[in-house]
Amino acid sequence: AAQPACDEAPGGLALHLNVETCAVQPDIVLRTELPRIPDKPMVELDFGPVPVGQRIVRSVELYNQGEADAQLRATALGSGQVFGQVNAMRQVLRGGSFTVKVSFEPQQRTQYLEVLTLSTDRTAVRIALKGLGIAPELKLEPPSAMTDGFDFGDVFSGEASERSFTVTNVCPFPLTFSMRFCGVPDPNLQARPPFYARPAEGTLAQGESAEVTLVFQPSNQRPYFDDILQVYVPNQQDELLVPVKGRCWEEGVFVSGPTYPPPQDDPFMEAQLARRLGAAAGPAAQLLLTDPSQPRQLTLTFPAPLHIGEAATTSFEVGSLKSAAVGGAAGELIIEELPAAARAAGWAVDPTKLPLPVGDKKAVTVTYVAPREVHAGIAAYFGHEEYMECTLKMALKGGLPAPPSAEGRRLSLLLRVLLRPGER
Q1: pTM
Q2: Alpha-carbon distance 86 to 105, whole Å?
Q3: E-strand spans in 170-279?
Q4: Which of 9, 62, 126, 400 is most buried, most CB within 10 Å of its CB?
Q5: How far apart are CA 289 and CA 72, in angstroms?
Q6: Is the bond preceding residue 199 a cis peptide, omega within 30 degrees?
Q7: Spatial distance between the Cα atoms of 45 and 62, rounded to a whole number of angstroms
Q8: What's the pLDDT band for 157 if we cut at 50, 70, 90?
Q9: Domains of the chain in sequence order
Q10: pLDDT band at residue 423, thresholds of 50, 70 and 90?
Q11: 221-245, pLDDT tens digit by residue?
Q12: Strand pairing class (241-249; 150-156)
């Protein structure tokens, strides 16, 4: 009850209220020791750092110290389903206890806060829920493995080439990883992937590192093996992708850099399958099987377009392989002289004859100088762009094994550069 009283005070009238109340014991209390938040009528339940996508559960025990049974209720938690009630609320008998289970499942890397109120008709217990979402993080070194990838170079059919990188667990908890390849257009003849990793999977403790070895072991001749390795870590937000590529040859001398026939027109696989199975091959493969002296058609496109009056260079490589089992032999590249019309049009090649020591690889440079002035013989005269082209004929000789023809492996290389109108 409150009895108002009035007193005269300097400058005005003062009003006094007499307030009386009674304090009673709460019927439910916390039995779980949780820290109190200063200046706030609540305790804190901290889940700590939890990996994104992982769910953990904490328990809070309540005790009914009142003189009657109490029906327990809980406020609804947020719709984001980061914090959640695991079990349903029920009546707590006098002198009995009940365990409330709360889950935490972070969805992203951030800190989460929410208040859970557990109440009866007489008492309310407020619990501040707190948790930090952290993402699994695997560090890959060197960083160039993801930007540039790995080129396994040129190998013989059935032999292997290796590259390696290191993975390190930089998060405060153990994590697992696995190696996943996206796949190549065509498998090896034995239906075995040409690229594989060892180990293929593993678990790393906090701060632990492991070396991963990538192996390129093709079993059929293809000049365009490539793939993408994904270092997969569950719930890691940033993808770890490593491009890989390599080339496989059955002859000792080779050319790399130009574009070979695309996979859908690839005669190499069909020819080898037909040879092994004794079956008929398609027209492109038949050409390889029946007349190896016919030149292979390759294409080398300059990486960037040119404008009137500009010059550019590009290159391709030739080499002589050295087998780990039988060694190798020196080879030679011979390029036919360009026609006078091609030289007058601005094309040049250097060198035109190149010895190839065993296990060595050398570059051949191609140069194109665009016309200084437009004329009616080119599309730029009419304001259009076009590809300027030139065919380079050459032969590869020697190596171990050597090409089947005495003339060597004949190649026809189409050179292409995009010429645009006007000046840059």
Answers
A1: 0.69
A2: 12
A3: 175-181, 195-198, 201-204, 209-216, 222-232, 241-249, 253-256
A4: 62
A5: 84
A6: yes
A7: 14
A8: confident
A9: 28-134 (2.60.40.10), 138-250 (2.60.40.10), 263-420 (2.60.40.10)
A10: confident
A11: 888 889 999 999 988 888 999 999 9
A12: parallel
Give the tokens for residue 257. 């850099």
Place of tokens 């206890």: 97
Tell me whether the omega of the peptide bond preceding residue 401 falls within 30 degrees of 0, making it cis. Answer: yes
More confident of the two residues 188 and 382:
382
- The helix, strand and coil proportions of the chain, stated in percent and rounded to the nearest 5, come to 10, 50, 45
Q: Decide which of 404 and 330 is more confident.
A: 330
Please provide the DSSP assignment of 189-202 as one string: TTS--SEEEESSEE
**Strand 111-119's sheet: what is its strand order?**
43-51, 124-134, 111-119, 73-74
Query: Would the pLDDT of 347 be above 70?
Result: yes
> What is 327-338 written as a DSSP string?
B---EEEEEPPP
Q: Which of 64, 3, 69 is nearest to 28 (CA)?
A: 64
Inter-axis angle of helices 267-277 and 283-290, nearest 10 = 70
Kindly report the average pLDDT of the chain as a whole number: 88
Q: Are 47 and 129 in contact (CB under 8 A)?
A: yes
* Residue 4, pLDDT above cutoff 60: no
Question: Which has the closest alpha carbon to 347: 381, 321, 312?
Answer: 312
Give Cα separations from 311 to 55, 65, 82 (angstroms).
61, 92, 61
* pLDDT at residue 402 tops 60: yes
Residue 379: φ, ψ to 5°: -65, -25
DSSP 6-55: EEEETTEEEEE----------SEEE-S--PBPTTSS-EEEEEEEEETT--
Note the pLDDT tens digit of each residue in 127-143.
999 999 988 889 999 99
369, 345 in Cβ contact below 8 A? no
363 in helix, strand or coil?
A: strand
Q: Which residues contact 85 (CB under 8 A, 6 or more apart)?
A: 74, 77, 100, 101, 102, 103
Q: How far is residue 147's CA from residue 255's CA, in Å, rounded to a whole number?
A: 25
